[in-house]
Specification:
Layout lengths: L3 E2 L13 E6 L4 H12 L4 E6 L8 H9 L4 E6 L1 H5 L5 H11 L7 E5 L15 E2 L5 H11 L25 E3 L12 H12 L7 E5 L6 H12 L5 E6 L3 H9 L1 H4 L8 H14 L6 E6 L4 H4 L9 E6 L10 E4 L5 H11 L5 H10 L4 H12 L5 H10 L14 H17 L1 H10 L5 E3 L2 H5 L7 H8 L1 H13 L3 E4 L6 H5 L3 E4 L1 H9 L3 H17 L11 H11 L10 H16 L3 H19 L4 H16 L3 H19 L4 H16 L3 H19 L4 H16 L3 H19 L4 H16 L3 H18 L5 H17 L2 H19 L4 H17 L2 H18 L5 H16 L3 H19 L4 H16 L3 H19 L4 H16 L3 H18 L5 H7 L14
Helix pairs in contact: 2-4, 8-10, 10-36, 12-13, 12-14, 13-15, 14-16, 16-17, 17-20, 19-20, 23-25, 25-26, 25-27, 26-27, 27-28, 27-29, 28-29, 29-30, 30-31, 31-32, 32-33, 33-34, 33-35, 34-35, 35-36, 36-37, 37-38, 38-39, 39-40, 39-41, 40-41, 41-42, 41-43, 42-43, 43-44
Length: 1001
């Protein structure tokens, strides 16, 4: 902010336009921006001069130079303005009297601080702008500069910076401002201009550098300096994907978004809102500690706002991020920082200390802090550094620079001498993940089995506070209540922030005896914090907080049953919360550890196997889950036989693997055995038996055996209503399945009646954003479409697709099922270009998810052929449908409804390109097969009969064509009604087509 800015427009008050030069400390940039904007809106020309105070120039010379600026000089009075240099108050008093005293009208001032300032500042006549609202502050500002306070501002409709005392409308997770922040002005300015100059959607900047250079502090200072230009500022701890997803998802409620409880859904809603800039386009996200780009790069939001990433890893440059390296302090910055942190040290002392500590900000902060409280001279401290610390007292890893190793050894020895419990607390913290550490868990856990060494620390509140305050005083930790954001919670030590560099160096070289005892304490603390209800969304925030710490506490290698239960509960939580990737990785590590720890056949190993397979399956890794489930079945069969509940549970999972792989007959054979096996073991009405019955019905449906599926789904529904009540989620699920069967059998009116009532119940029980509600609405939209209500169907299909994308993401089988329906609808009744774009995207995503030859991929290609037909690419369409027809017959059999549907479309394309005989023959064969599989009056059979009549007309067999057509029309009228859309279309001799509809659940 150094250039002159053009005012909004010239004033019309008749006077010459006034010029004001604002002089401010960089720390107060937000105030300068707001004041300048208020003045410009009054027609004042404004220029900005950031105040600096290099030690080699006198204050008198600096003030005289400032006085040469154009117009009146407005100084923003703050403690930071007078600390730059640093200069004494005596120096300031003398300089102000000498330069300002003779011509006070050249200068004016506003005060934005309540702290002590030089007495001579009175010559500037400062007016106080603190502790008041924006309107009163503006009135005082204008009055001080002799500008009218009742005139109309000159406006252009643009939004200016926010009043600095007012937080953005949405503000969360931002660390408290570091009042000792020093220097970094060029880096802050570069960051600002890089972000402001970026195109919409490309405003991503990574602050990268070695550990300890102050990347996090720099990002926090950026927020406080430039935050007034944003409506949303949200700080995200990004050291792991799980934590990143959780914290970013928490933004959904702050943005006023209507979502369910699952983090995946809320995260997608947030990203969509930020992308669209609705309800806020001026947003800033800070992704702190994102050292592994591969973990989260795909989740970084785009849109009109800005993203700042702090990372040790410059590979962010490969993920559409600008890079800005953060280096160690310049020597002048180091000296200024040390003088502010340790006022008793001279400039010469500070320079020597900075050189010895290699200008590393984190180390300067920690060392200067305790040196200020110590009688030790800088020379003596440097001698300690050069001599090295006693390795028998404190060991520090050789992975760190030599200065850092020795300085840390000295600091830890100092802590042990003063408050030894502070070192114990610090070592406990290293068994949590670095960053925000919920140390309250240590206080809240039962202390019966805590080692005697730690009893005093955990039981005595005074000793606890003393230990925390000692660590805080020397900048080893930062007190935060990151989750609640309250000062009261922070001061009570709920949460501390431990820099990852400190975490690593303390954790690496802990005495082995302490390591074993301390890690057990942290494991017990995590287990005690387990709510014990991983499927209850009300406790998901608790699990989300626990999960990142499992790795550092090495929880999977604990022999404690409670800790093992915690691990299993976390795996189950991650499945229901949609944390599939992180979940299956934890599951795999757990399995490997427990097989060695507990043995291959331990019940907890089988429990972990079940959760691991579920998470992998949810991530669509069906081939891997099949291998896992088959291996488990072999071992369980050998050990326990087939009449075992664990064996049946694994077999049930294998059936789902086979569905995902498109091997429907194998799945059917498996479920035909599983259901009676459950019935024999636990009874007819046990929920597990009913689940198996539900799966058997789905296996029938996937084989195209819709009548059999209907009968079983009806039975399951009746049993669940009896056992679980009508509004239980599983009961409602069965009701949707029953309605789907009705629709697939052509009983459209019955299906819509059942489904409409079911949707109303689902919205009450599960909420409008639940994937189960969306599944029900998807079927209702298809019922409406088959019934002829295209307007309602089109609106609902769009809503369902958006809901699934938000809930489950783009690459999910339920989402893709909705996308298929949406594409088909737009092909016939909407935007053909949108239909084609969606169809091509569907094929790409199916190829990513499923093995080649899967019925879903084949069916999606059949749908694509219809789009090509509609846009005039007949030859391409013909080749594609013929291949789909052949592939589908191989995949599911020639009598499957999927294959029969492909045949109807293939005969239409043959007719269209002039191969009428072949078309007629295929139609005739299709009629015979469809009649055998589905019955003479099923809609698919009727479509084949209407198609055959068209082919016969093409062959000029008019009499046979007329007879075939009239019989088909009569059956359509008796089955669907004279005014049904299918009947009307057939009467108008529109050739029917078949839409592939993937059965995803």
């Amino acid at each position: 902010m150094s250039e002159t800015r053009t005012p909004v427009r010239s004033t019309e008050r008749g006077a010459a336009r006034q010029t004001v030069t604002i002089s401010f400390a960089g720390f107060n940039r937000a105030w300068a921006a707001w004041i300048g904007d208020r003045l410009e809106r009054q027609g004042v020309r404004v220029s900005y001069v950031r105040w600096d105070s290099p030690a080699e120039e006198t204050l008198v010379d600096l003030l005289r130079g400032l006085a040469l600026a154009e117009g009146r000089i407005l100084i923003l009075v703050s403690e930071r303005y007078f600390q730059l240099g640093p200069r004494t108050f005596e120096e300031w008093n003398a300089a102000l009297r000498e330069v300002v005293g003779p011509d006070p009208s050249k200068f004016a001032a506003v005060s934005v601080t309540n702290t002590q300032v030089p007495a001579a500042i009175a010559v500037l006549g400062p007016v106080d702008l603190t502790n008041m609202g924006a309107d009163e502050a503006e009135r005082r500002l204008l009055d001080r500069l002799d500008l009218p306070t009742d005139g109309r501002p000159v406006l252009d409709g643009s939004r200016g910076p926010r009043f600095p005392a007012a937080l953005p409308e949405v503000w969360g997770g931002v660390p408290r401002r570091n009042t000792r922040f020093t220097g970094r002005e060029p880096v802050l300015n570069d960051a600002y201009h890089l972000l402001q100059g970026s195109d919409s959607g490309a405003g991503v900047l990574t602050l990268h550098g070695m550990p300890g250079v102050g990347k996090t502090q720099l990002a926090a200072e950026y927020v406080y300096r430039f935050g007034s230009e944003y409506d949303v500022v949200w700080w995200v701890n990004s050291e792991s994907r799980v934590t990143y997803r959780r914290v970013l998802a928490e933004l959904s409620s702050k943005l006023g978004l209507s979502t369910g409880d699952e983090y995946g859904e809320r995260l997608r809603a947030v990203r969509d809102s930020l992308r669209r800039g609705n309800p806020f386009s001026r947003w800033l996200l800070i992704l702190d500690g994102a050292d592994e780009p591969d973990q989260i790069w795909d989740l970084v939001p785009t849109g009109p706002g800005h993203v700042i990433i702090t990372s040790r890893n410059p590979e962010w440059g490969e993920h559409n991020s600008k890079l800005l390296e953060v280096k160690v302090y310049d020597r002048d910055e180091s000296v200024a920082f040390i003088r502010r942190r340790a006022p008793r040290l001279s400039d010469e002392d500070a320079d020597q200390l900075a050189a010895a500590l290699e200008d590393l900000p984190l180390l300067l902060d920690q060392t200067a802090g305790w040196l200020n409280d110590s009688d030790l001279s800088v020379e003596d401290y440097i001698a300690l550094l050069e001599d090295g610390a006693d390795p028998d007292v404190v060991k520090v890893s050789a992975d760190f620079p030599l200065a850092f190793q020795t300085a840390w050894a000295i600091l830890l020895n100092k802590l042990r001498e003063t408050v030894p419990e502070s070192v114990d607390l610090l070592r406990l913290c290293t068994f949590f993940a670095p960053g925000f550490i919920p140390v309250r868990m240590l206080r809240e856990m039962p202390h019966d089995d805590v080692p005697e060494q730690l009893t005093g620390l955990l039981d005595d509140p005074l000793l606890w506070n003393r230990a925390i305050n000692q660590l805080r005083q020397y900048s080893v930790v930062r007190l935060e209540s990151h989750e609640a954001g309250s000062e009261e919670a922070a001061s009570s030590g709920e949460s501390v922030y431990l820099h990852r560099m400190v975490h690593q160096i303390v954790g690496k070289d802990m005495p082995e005896a302490d390591r074993k005892e301390f890690i057990d304490v942290v494991r017990q603390a995590l287990a005690a914090a387990d709510p014990g209800r991983p499927t209850d969304t009300r406790f998901w925030s608790a699990y989300a907080q626990i999960v990142p710490h499992l790795k550092y506490a090495d929880a999977i290698n604990s022999k404690d049953r409670k800790v093992q239960t915690l691990v299993l509960n976390c795996l189950r939580y991650m499945y229901f919360a949609g944390e599939y990737t992180a979940g299956w990785k934890l599951g795999r590590r757990t399995l490997n550890a427990w097989r060695e720890l507990l043995g291959e056949s331990h019940p907890r190993v089988w429990e972990a196997t079940y959760h691991y397979a579920n998470l992998l399956r949810a991530a669509n890794r069906f081939e891997e889950t099949e291998a896992i489930d088959r291996a488990a079945m072999v071992r369980l069969r050998e050990e326990r036989g087939e009449n075992d509940l664990d064996y049946l549970r694994v077999a049930n999972g294998l059936g789902a693997d086979l569905w995902g792989l498109g091997r429907y007959r194998e799945a059917f054979d498996l479920y035909s055995w599983i259901h009676p096996a459950y019935r024999e073991l636990v009874g007819e009405q046990d929920s597990r038996t009913l689940n198996a019955l539900n799966n058997l019905a789905f296996a029938h449906r996937l084989l195209g055996q819709y009548k059999e599926a209907l009968a079983i789904d009806q039975k399951t529904l009746e049993q669940r209503r009896l056992v679980l009540t009508g509004r239980h989620l599983w009961t409602l699920f069965s009701e949707v399945s029953y309605a789907i069967d009705l629709r697939l059998l052509g009983r459209y009116s019955d299906a819509e009646s059942v489904q409409a009532r079911n949707v109303r119940e689902y919205r009450i029980v599960a909420g409008e954003t639940s994937q189960y509600t969306l599944r029900a609405e998807h079927n209702l939209a298809l019922c409406q479409l088959r019934g002829g209500d295209r307007a309602a169907a089109g609106q609902l299909l769009t809503r369902v697709l958006e809901g699934f994308e938000r809930k489950l993401g783009d690459v999910d089988l339920l989402t893709l099922s909705a996308a298929v329906s949406h594409s088909c609808f737009h092909r016939e009744h909407g935007d053909i270009d949108l239909a084609r774009e969606t169809s091509e995207s569907i094929l790409a995503r199916y190829d990513q998810l499923l093995p080649q030859g899967h019925p879903f991929i084949i069916g999606a290609r059949a749908n694509q052929a219809l789009i090509l037909r509609n846009v005039g690419e007949r030859e391409h369409a013909h080749v594609l449908i013929e291949q789909a027809f052949a592939d589908m017959a191989e995949a599911v059999g020639e009598n499957h409804p999927y294959t029969l549907g492909c045949a109807i479309n293939a005969s239409a394309l043959r007719n269209l390109i002039g191969d009428t005989e072949s078309a007629a023959e295929l139609s005739r064969i299709t009629i015979a097969r469809a009649t055998e599989t589905l019955g003479r009056t099923h809609p698919l059979t009727l479509s084949a009969r209407v198609s055959y009549a068209a082919d016969l007309r093409g062959l000029r067999a008019r009499q046979q064509a007329e007879k075939t057509e009239q019989e088909a029309l009569a059956d359509l009228e008796s089955t669907l009604g004279k005014q049904h859309v299918h009947t009307i279309s057939a009467r108008a001799r529109n050739r029917p087509y078949w839409d592939f509809e993937p059965q995803a659940s």
